[in-house]
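The aim of this short unit is practical: by the end, you should be able to scan a pair of folded records and say something sensible about each. We start with the first protein, listed as its amino acid sequence and then its structure tokens.
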Amino acid sequence: METPVGSIYEFGPFEVRPGSGELLKHGRRVKLQDQPFRLLVVLLENAGQVVTREQIQSRIWEENTFVDFDASLRVAVRKLREALGDDAENPRYIETVPKRGYRFLAPFPSAVGSVQRIEETEASPAGREAPAKSERPERWHWFAALLLLILITSATGAFLSLAHKRRVFTEKDTVVLADFANSTGDPVFDGTLRQGLTVQLEQSPFLSLISDERMQQVLHSMGQPPDARLDPQIGREVCERTGSAAVLDGSIASLGSKYVLGLQAKDCRTGKVLAAEQVQADRKEEVLNALDQIASKFRSRVGESLTTVEKYDTPLAEATTPSLEALKAYSAGLKIHSQKGSAAALPLFKHAIALDPKFAMAYANLGHAYGEIGESDLSAESMSKAYQFQDRASDREKFFVTASYDFRVTGNLEKVEQACMAWAQAYPRDYDPPGILGGVVYPAFGKYQKAVEESSKAVELDPDFAIGYNDLAFDYVFLDRLGQAEKTLQLASARNLEASDALVLPYDIAFLKGDQVGMEREAAVEQAKSESEAQSWYYQAFAMAYSGHLRQARTMAARATDMAQQADQPERAALWGTGAALLEAFLADPSAARKKAKAALVLSKDREIEYGAALAFALTGDTAQAQTLANDLQRRFAEDTSVKFSYLPTLRALLALDSGESSRAIELLQVAAPYDLGAPRSSYHGIFGPLYPVYFRGEALLAAHQGPQAAAEFQKILDHRGTVVSDPIGALARLQLGRAFAMSGDKARAKSAYENFLTLWKAADPDIPIFREAKQEYARLQ
């Protein structure tokens, strides 16, 4: 039935005007796109009747060819329900009729007028007098209709109750996705379909797939190589070992020019088929659309609500890429990343982008990989592209892109926190949101107990999440709870888990415990690994400088920087060169500090490199260069949390001190106070910068002759060794504390503080200027 010109439909608070394309609610226009509106009109024209998918396609999409009709229809229905405030589980207006189509639920009168009122209870034509003789039969008709409605409602309730009892999975179950059996002979499907189905199933807040990282650990314990193919037998064993509810076996076969895709869920203990779906694609280009269909049908079949299936169901071509070849390269990149690390995965992510320059998640994972190896500029560049194309991602992946963009590009950690909280609310079974909060956000805020809680939550959600253990151990170190940090690493080791950042954590713990033998043992272990050798030399350089062994520190830092450049990692080389410049600036040679800072800036202008170089210039009296870099940081990174609340306040205070304005320096550092104890970005890969606002506030108070207040600031540094670790201010705070006590007239405590510093530096290089000054000052106290 076609709508007559000028007709208006009314139901509930809504009014639909097909002629003008308007949907009104209580007289106010409701925004609704063209296809959902046209769908609504078709349903209203056939109110009470099932409108098949074929009828909808011929009425709404008849003039165009849509290979993704099913996905487009689901999106249109979802948007229509959102506009009407309808619920797929308990529909008031639009009912899904499985495998057939949709039905508008309100009864519709037979007469057609210029205004058609669709009543939700009784729908008798208004203003019409019925003959007396037909009054009784009409009432009996309504009674029969009411009785029928009651019977239908009861049957529907019984059906839904039965369906609920037959749910295959629960919200607490995990499932293993095996590799697709590919009998087509076309290698483009190998690995690609599994990755495509992973993306589709991970859109579900209900389903929880075993992660590839966890899969690698289980394969290792089974004695299988990390690249072992997950055939049904291996998949079933992985399923049993992970305590999962089922293993999902996919298949693709060719039938002439057509392709048939199948998916089965099998109980991993009994092998019983719990659910199965099969779809057909008419040609190769439609295989990804067929994968969409099989994923949506499967999600509904195993117990997920229609509401979430329709809400979180971005078509695969929109969530990833329409290119099978690009998806294959991306899939290979993810697999290599989990097996061999970030650097090995870079070429594959780049290849995926070359095949599809709008592939958002390929850019996001490329940016993530660059960030893991310390290439922050390249990471930010890739993340910006991912953010630009985030419409080509699923809802779940958009959370990842948004959080990653604000972490890697803007640096606005307050926005990262907001994104992660929204992400966790939509996907409560995802370990990434608490992982990011515990590993990045709350440490930067100095909220270390909160960081422990979030990292613990991430580990609880996935006990084989290697980075989760690493972040939790770091959080315990920040709190100086070294025993719990070691226990956390032991738990990870017992599960054969090792994250890339965990390579240096045991070394830091040994350093904080004063365990020289342990430090040497951990350094030897890491130097035997090609991927961590350079980083190990850099960490040893800071540990050597901390105790005054500057000559050894110079050699080690130079070796680390050279190795980074040889590995074609210029930004990492620049960051480590900046750290070496700061060691010179704090402890020894101003000219060497400036030279190393300039060399680092030639390689990169990343924010941490500009910050470290600006500090080196300010500490050695080159205020003009320091001011230029500070201005550039403010211009380029105005939103960055570390820049706003740590880097710029520290630099400006130091410049004020250089000008003899101690009171001004103290005032400038007030903005940093809420973040004083945090671990800024520079402390992650550069291992410099934590508690710098506190250190220079102490220096400003010394310059203002406020000894007791200065002593309190330097004591904060000594009380938070787990945050400072081997940064040179951890050693210098002992000397500065002695100077603050001496200024306060507390000779006994001053002597004790000087002795602590001189004991730490008992074997230091004798020609270090600050070492000579400390010995002279201590002698005057005797």
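Turning to the second protein, read its sequence before its tokens, just as you did above.
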Amino acid sequence: MKRIRGLTALIHDGVQLTTELVREGMNSTSRSVQRVTDQIEPIAGPARTVMALRQASTEGVLTAVQVVNRTIQVVTDAGLDLAEYVTTQRAPETEKQSPPLAPAMTMRSDVVKTASWAGDAALGLVNAVVGDHLHRRGNGLDLGMSFRAGNHYVPLTRAALDQSIKTPSRKVALFVHGLATTEWSWCLGSESYYGEPGVSFGTMLERDLGYTPIWLRYNTGRHVSENGRLLATELERFLQAYPGNLEELVLVGHSMGGLVARSACHYASEDSLRWPQLVRHVFCLGSPHRGAPLEKLGNVLTRVLGAIDLPGTLIPARLLAGRSAGIKDLRHGALLDEDWLGRDPDALRSEGTCEVPLLAHARYFFVCATVTSDPDHPLGQIVGDLLVRTPSSSGPVTCSQTFSVETSRFGGVLHHQLQNHPSIYEVLRSGLTQQEAV
């Protein structure tokens, strides 16, 4: 019911946006015509009158559409309220009580193209594009933030974690996915790489080194700093409720996930939370620490198209400008509230992002990839892994102090393949094994 409500609300929001785009397009057309008729003195006055009447008529029609749309939404919501009430009243008492663990889609690569996979993938994409809007509106499609253990999303209580983690290890590895995906993406390509659809970095670290794998699921359309703050708080709750004696926490972030992990470490350290002291390793796989070229291109296109007063340019500019806060943060790899509060996120000239120090006691592993088999090939240097270039994924620029950093480059690996490629797993395994040897 929550998803149905969210979908209907998003459809009605889409109708509202469409009427606004129609209004903007017609007003732009009128301005273009008026610029011509104003130069012809005999018809300038009558033309203005005709356009004013046309604008009033159009405004009336569009306003009526918006009123009817919102009226239908109110009626639909009332119907859903009634249906939910009737269903709840008829359900047995045992069914009225929500189970402590919410089932999740199986993390196997062979579920691709199933209905459950398509729905999950669509949710990830919608959250990436308009996730900030969903959050502001309280829309049921908002993924929020949740922790996954095994095949369940787990409330951060001792009872729920006891139920979901049967043999808790002293070591936990948290996997943070990237933009437009969900935690399922960590098993993408498992069968082709390992001959087994259920294999992932998490299952292999559990098998090889005894780490308990936990996966994060979150709304990638919100600001990185908002997700970072929330993750910092939720990890502290996780630490308090964990059923075993947790001694080590490993953070593994893919793409945006690496930025969210770094942001969480910063805010947790600022608030003197306990869990950052358990972090000994942070792995960032293809993370745009210095920005992503596609978002930089989107920023330029938004400004250029918006500067041309034509329907064919203003409407695309309006749509581009509506991309989520999370996407806009990728322009320069923004991690903090200060990077966007009081700033124009679409300004052509950026004031630059604030420097965010790394954890002084942790080792950082920055993994880069290029589409070319030779990482030093000019084409590979230009396009990187298709989404992030090597200088950006090599880590942030830090000036305040030195940190323990290891950068690895791999040729012939695409951006999405960094989540489950055997060579990338070797970086994780060897990095963690080196610590055990010490």
